[in-house]
Amino acid sequence: MANRESTVYLDNNATTRVAPEVIEAMMPFFGDRYGNPSSIYRFGGTVRRHIERAREQVAALIGASPGEIVFTSCGSEGDNMALKGFFQERGERTRIVTTAVEHPAVRNTARFLSGRGAKITELSVDNNGMLSGGVFDSIDISRDTLTSIMWANNETGVVFPIRELAGAVKARGGLFHTDAVQAAGKTVIDVKKVPVDMLAFSGHKLHAPKGVGAAYFRAGTPVKAILHGGHQEGGVRAGTENVPYIVGLGRACELAAQRISEENTRVRTLRDRLEKALLEKCAGAKLNGHPTERLPNTTNVSFENIEGEAILLHLDEAGIAASSGSACTTGSLEPSHVMTAMGIPYNYAHSSIRFSFSVYSTDEDVDRVIAVMPDIVEKLRRLSPFVDQVF
Ligand code: PLP
């Protein structure tokens, strides 16, 4: 077993390490600066100023005004706020248009609301994981419609044309929410140029800790609280603020804004080098997702007729952390809903492996994966129960 120090961590779409600069920014708020930001005396007021500074840093990452940012506990909470908040406003008139490849944070929330009377439409994607052109042509969109489409897909990294999609929805009077959990910090987001009404993202995908996130609500967007209590966060999200984590999220957003160009140059080059080597050196390898419209840090490759989980176990033995697109459901390996929605054939879909990079990834990480993958694939293919089957 490889020792933990030398782990090659290529699962940054699952979570990221907390940046040392973020930890440093957070520490005082676990120590001397423990005041309640709502308190009237200076000991609390100083803390409040740090929250407002963090709000500015978060807003700056996406081109928003600080007053349009609400701190949350995670990306899932932001997605829930958007969908359930809209449902609270519109009740059974609610219509939600979403895609077949959304994260469960949106998909399962929409399904929950469907059980309460909302009408749900799931848009299908093509083989590249893209929404087909004219996708809204046959869909009824009105002021009672909330369209929720992710900015970028977590499994494939495919980036949707959010500016055009949101523009089309807004032109017909609907509201638009985007789950930007995977996009924030990896690609430029500017809500001044992209007409989304609501957007959610998460701290732990951009080098802040787990347990904090942010949601954007364009000024004037009708939204109702789903968590009631005190007056915090403008009454939209009650609960005493998680000060150290909010301060950490602010610092992480500031760093992310500085590092977006590195994500799109050095990190992209690492990703491309690994992808090219896997496709060239591993028999039966095939890329999943649009070849160009993708986050710079993500590659998703299938290895025909091999189980993804088996590959992951072998990678783990070699000290490499990645992720697979199949999940164990009732004892059998089922391809993910994303691979299924893309129409990837079963013998590829259940063997998809995602490698996701960060600014902490190195050339050595890529070398180590390239050094072991062809042998792993060859070995597992020899053992594969699928090889003689016809699909
Ligand atoms: N949306 C997407 C696209 C994600 O990838 C994730 C997490 O993987 C989430 C939402 C949920 O975020 P969180 O873990 O912060 O709740």
Molecular structure report:
The chain has about 400 residues and is α/β, with parallel strands linked by helices. The chain folds into two domains: about 5-15 and about 260-385, Aspartate Aminotransferase, domain 1 (Alpha-Beta Complex); about 20-255, 3-Layer(aba) Sandwich (Aspartate Aminotransferase, domain 2). It is about 35% helix and about 15% strand. It contains ten helices and 15 strands. It has helices spanning about 20-25, 40-60, 75-90, 105-115, 160-170, 245-280, 310-315, 335-340, 345-350, 365-385; strands spanning about 10, 70, 95-100, 120-125, 145-150, 175-180, 200, 215, 285, 300-305, 320, 325, 325-330, 330-335, 350-355. The strands form four sheets. The protein has a seven-stranded mixed β-sheet, with helices on both faces. Strands 9-10-15-12 form a four-stranded antiparallel β-sheet. Strand 3 (about 95-100), helix 4 and strand 4 (about 120-125) form a beta-alpha-beta unit. Helix 6 (about 245-280) crosses helix 10. The chain is globular and about 70 Å long. The model has no long low-confidence stretch (mean pLDDT about 95).
Brief characterization of the structure:
The chain has 391 residues and is of the alpha/beta class. It has helices at 20-26, 42-62, 75-90, 104-114, 162-171, 243-281, 308-317, 337-341, 346-349, 363-383; strands at residues 8-9, 69-72, 95-99, 119-123, 145-148, 175-179, 198-202, 213-217, 285-287, 298-303, 320-321, 323-324, 326-329, 332-335, 352-356.
